[in-house]
Amino acid sequence: MKLYEYEGKQIFNQAGIPIPRGTAVYTLQDASKAAQETGYPVVVKSQVMRGGRGKAGGIKFATDEQELLQSVKELQSLELSGERVEIILIEEKLDIAREFYMGITLDPRKSLPLLMVSAQGGMDIEQVAREYPHQLFKMHLDPLAPPRLNNMLDLLLKTGLQGSQLVQAAKVLYNLVRCYFKYDAITAEINPLVIDASGNVVAADSKLEIDDSALYRVKAVQDFNRKSEISDPIEAEAKSLGISYVGLGKGNIGLIAGGAGLGMASMDMIWAHGGSPANFLDLGGDATMEKTANALRVVLKTPGVEGVFINLFGGINNCEQMAKGISLVIDELQPTQTIVVKMRGHSQDEGWAILESINVPTVKFGTTEEAVILLLEQMINKGVTDDGYTN
Amino acid sequence: MAILINEDIRVIIQGITGKQGTYHALRMKEYNVNVVGGVSPGKGGQTVHGVKVYDTVAAVKKEHQVDASMIMVPPAGVLGAVVEAIENNISLIVIITEFVPVHDCLVIRSMARKAGVRVIGPNTIGVISPGKSKVGIMPGYIYSEGGVGIISRSGTLTHEISSNLTYKGIGQSTCVCIGGDPVKGTDFLDVLELFRDDDQTETVVMIGEIGGAGEELAARYVIENGYPKKIVAFIAGQTAPAGKKMGHAGAIVSEGFGTAESKIKSLGEAGITVVRTLDELLEAVR
């Protein structure tokens, strides 16, 4: 779960990290009130999940009410990488002397959290790594022994910080590391960390992503509203049913796979043989009859789907239950789409018998590739072309 | 010889009284796995398909030698179960559970490496040495004994490729599913190292997927150390859109990192045979 900047800053604030004064608003009236309380000049920041907001015109400044209202209107009409701006953060304008970077993310090469700091703040970290690699200072964190304040001081000394700013920044960094562990973060980042003209250290931005698997124990984020995160209604419906579904655009072949790897390989095979998958769907490890039925309903509902490839294994799941789910939906919806099932594993004989009793073409011992070819042949026989149009 | 497990291995199931634990206890017994006990706090004294249930791992150990534990408890209980297994000196721990928090995985991995314990997973179907034994949830009859060692991030692709090989008369030495999460107890290169010295294993199959750096690290390991056996690799997700999590927590291409192209290129540079489709894989192994 990615947090908006203002939500991340609430968490930072509770953790003792200084943040600018400000308020998140949805309306012009609230924006005007927030700006008056904060005092002009203010920064007007669109709240979106994606990066690169500044370059795309998502941050504005206002010295009076007229400029503020103009800025808010402009931001509200903005779409950043397909994301509509709904929430706007009104904040005091900092008098910036210097900008630093500090962040923690997972290093896939070591399977350890990696702490990084740099005196090159304000640009994205990939750019810093490319253009100023010698100014990016790194330290792996031990999950069994989180670092102490003196470790933070040592790391930040390399950036050239000194005196009161060094100590303030080290405290911020120490608290950021605490946030990373306490809130089950995947990424925790402050960019930029600002040193203002009076020498105060302030987190001018926040980037915080919480591990979805840990949300049950991160109470602080459970109240954050997230209804707009998934724009595709079918994707949202699948998620509410506990099914991992990714829409792929204009394809005409629906896909249901047991397991992510098999799903991806099936998708690759459909493309390789000239087909066009409409979706990726991983049924997951608790594929009951009902869940299998739900998955098939969702895929049959996907616009443009004219053939469905169901590729399942009875590992943790059971072929008989999954076949019952498929049979249920075929009975209920009488779909016109071509359906091919490849299925084996626990209770395969029972599963195959159910599918054969309703005349669903079933691949028992063949490969995924053979099953894909069978589906494509059956679709052509039915008069569906590669473009998805019926002859 | 096979790796990690052989016919003598003594196994416990932590979480045996749950629905999945009960189901797979039976399946393991059908495969003649020596399941010496199950663990489920508060259920000590019960039996599940003839397997005695204990309240704690220490309680099992008072009555049995234990070589491996299969963890089938819900995500929130996994860290505690693994710590219990490590404290009781169980040398192989296989975590089947999916959706274990990443921070718990980080702790598990660090603890296991410190204690010299082998953890496989989480989010895995486990390990099988066909014809000998298994610590996992795979249906045994689609696997067969032979000379191909398999390392895979994906459970169902392990089934798919092993069963395809079996139907073509090609058996497997050991199939290790390392799991689909970003932080795992065991990585590709750890298993490559085990297969290196295994006399039963003639060819190694690596089944990777998009995301992470495990395939690239395995390629670097082969370049630096050489490898005495043929390795064939397949990467799933070659056509996956960037920025989308493809079912597994670890299967995501973000900011250009972890792409199929980068993995295929690294593996190719290490002299590994990289196939584009699953049928090509069968040909390459044959």
List keywords for this structure.
heterodimer, A: 391 residues, alpha+beta, D-amino Acid Aminotransferase, Chain A, domain 1, Dna Ligase, domain 1, Rossmann fold, 3 domains, 6-stranded antiparallel sheet, 4-stranded antiparallel sheet, 12 helices, elongated, B: 286 residues, alpha/beta, 7-stranded mixed sheet
Q: Strand count, sense and closure of the main sheet of chain A?
A: 6 strands, antiparallel
- The N- and C-terminal alpha carbons of chain B lie at a distance of 21 Å
What CATH architecture of the largest domain in chain A do you see?
A: 3-Layer(aba) Sandwich
Number of helices of chain A: 12
Seen as an oligomer or otherwise, the chain set is heterodimer
Description:
The complex is a heterodimer of chains A (391) and B (286). Helix content of chain A is 37%, strand content 25%. Chain A is α+β, with helices and mostly antiparallel strands. In chain A, strands 7, 8, 9, 10, 11 and 12 form a 6-stranded antiparallel beta sheet that branches. In chain A, α2 (28-38) packs across α3 (65-76) and α10 (319-333) runs parallel beside α11 (348-357). The longest helix of chain A has 20 residues, at 163-182. The model of chain A has no long low-confidence stretch (mean pLDDT 91). Chain B is α/β, with parallel strands linked by helices and 286 residues long. Chain B has 2 domains: 10-120, Rossmann fold, CATH 3.40.50.720; 126-285, Succinyl-CoA synthetase domains (Rossmann fold, 3-Layer(aba) Sandwich), CATH 3.40.50. Chain B contains 9 helices and 14 strands. Chain B has helices at residues 19-30, 57-63, 75-87, 102-115, 155-167, 188-196, 214-225, 260-269, 278-285, and strands at residues 10-14, 34-39, 47-48, 51-54, 68-71, 92-95, 118-120, 126-129, 133-136, 145-152, 172-177, 203-209, 230-236, 273-275. In chain B, strands 3-4-2-1-5-6-7 form a 7-stranded mixed beta sheet. In chain B, strands 9-8-11-10-12-13-14 form a 7-stranded mixed beta sheet, sandwiched between helices. In chain B, a hairpin with a 2-residue loop joins β3 (47-48) and β4. The longest helix of chain B has 14 residues, at 102-115. Chain B is globular and about 55 Å long. The chains are: A alpha+beta (391), B alpha/beta (286). The interface between A and B is large, with 54 and 69 residues.
